[in-house]
Amino acid sequence: MALWVRSPSSSRTFFSLLTLCALAALELACGGGSTKTQTSVPPGQPGQPTFSHVILVVEENHSYAEVMGISSMPYFNSLASQYGVAGQYFADAHPSLPNYLMLTTGLLETLDDNFSGIISDDNVVRELVKAGKTWKSYAESLPSPGYLGGDSDPYVRHHNPFTYLSDVQSDSSQAANIVPFTQFTTDLANNTLPQYSFVVPNLTDDAHDGTLAQADAWLQTNIAPLIASPTFQASGLLIITFDEGDQTDSNHGGGQVATLIISSNAKKNFKSQTLYQHQSVLRLILTSSGVDSFPGLAAAAPDMTEFFAGH
Description:
Layout (H helix, E strand, L loop, with lengths): L1 E3 L9 E3 H8 L28 E7 L4 H4 L6 H9 L1 E7 L5 H10 L18 H7 L4 E5 L26 H4 L2 H4 L2 E3 L1 H8 L6 E5 L11 H11 L1 H5 L1 H6 E7 L17 E3 L7 E8 H10 L24
Parallel strand pairs: 3-7, 3-8, 4-10, 5-6, 5-7
Antiparallel strand pairs: 1-2, 4-9, 8-9
Helix pairs in contact: 4-12
């Protein structure tokens, strides 16, 4: 079955599902790539914990070897030594946007960072809303709440995948969940974080334009208070990953990247050797939110239950 890739470039109108699977380098059955939600797959192994708050932070463009164990990221590596590390985690493609969309729709959707269309495929927003769950996208340097427009340096749209979703584009109440990152501190202090928080630093702070040391300092300033908060300690799950590896690393599509699983309920000092990609994090976000319906390739993606105590 052909999968249409929404790109303004006429030279890249669509790819077959076979090509999609090759690009993503999935060790999965390609049948999971239907644009329809796969509801027949159970949410994971028995005992998958659920959390009141799930937070995903996405950093930029550095491979696993560039990040793990390096002196310029002491805070990140301190978290890696305390919590769970996905030691065989790979991005799905180059450049950035298809990876962000895989984390959101379970599909690559496009290979063009300049894509400006609307995506109607099933997605994390749709599944959360159907289940009565809340969400927000906290984007650093976003020009204004509910902003769905183009780049405004150092904010870039293709790092904020929610802006492409028809569920958001057609519903002002959902668009209102796209907010500047400054709101995150307020919501944490007021104990009003949503069920799912997507956190996107700006180009300076996500290691895209700035240094790894700057990205690490940003994490320590903004994420350490989250981890220490009673709200998070009681029932929080934090995932930190990188959208893609260095452009020279195309293993499994987008290269090996560092991914951390952080929770008071996570195994301590644990390193997994299971092959995961971004669709597994999408699955984890939903299962950890008590949702058992998964968009796109998340339906057949390996679950990440092994990171939690008791498994």
